[in-house]
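Quick illustration, no need to memorize.
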Amino acid sequence: MILPIYAYGQPVLRKEAEDITKDYEGLEKLISDMWETMYNAGGIGLAAPQIGLGIRIFLVDTAQIKDEDKEQEGIKKAFINARIIEESGKEWGYEEGCLSIPEIRGEVFRQPKVTIRYMDEDFNEHTETYDGMNARVIQHEYDHIDGILFTEHLSGLKKRMLKRRLEKIRRGDISPDYRMKFTNPKRR
């Protein structure tokens, strides 16, 4: 089932999410619905707060964007109760966007390597290291479960320039190609 994506301004997007247990009711269906929602919106990652749930789950599918001539493989997996153990390397900038903040992009600087501990869908624990685009998408989605939006990583000038556009999103004064839930819907 395709779920509405919570737009900028929704309180759940600013709260640190909580761990779940392996007996979390409806987990398999939730993850399936999250995949369907993410693909419907054209995303490469989606975190539970973006569908209104304050729990520590996010999905990443960079396999769909990997370059054929690159050795680095994309990944497709769910991360449950994730904790970043280490970020390393010289920060590099890349223009990011977010399904919760449509039509806005900005250069975000992140470290190129991340080591993360998480549970998979069967609640097996893993500790893995990723780099490049895989690391970036993981860091972006991980920020969501910590209540951080990519716009917080932008320069002060860029944030000021985006203020009006962000307010339009908060009000629901936009028309994305996918279902969204707004704080103060103008015409929903």
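The mean pLDDT is 93.
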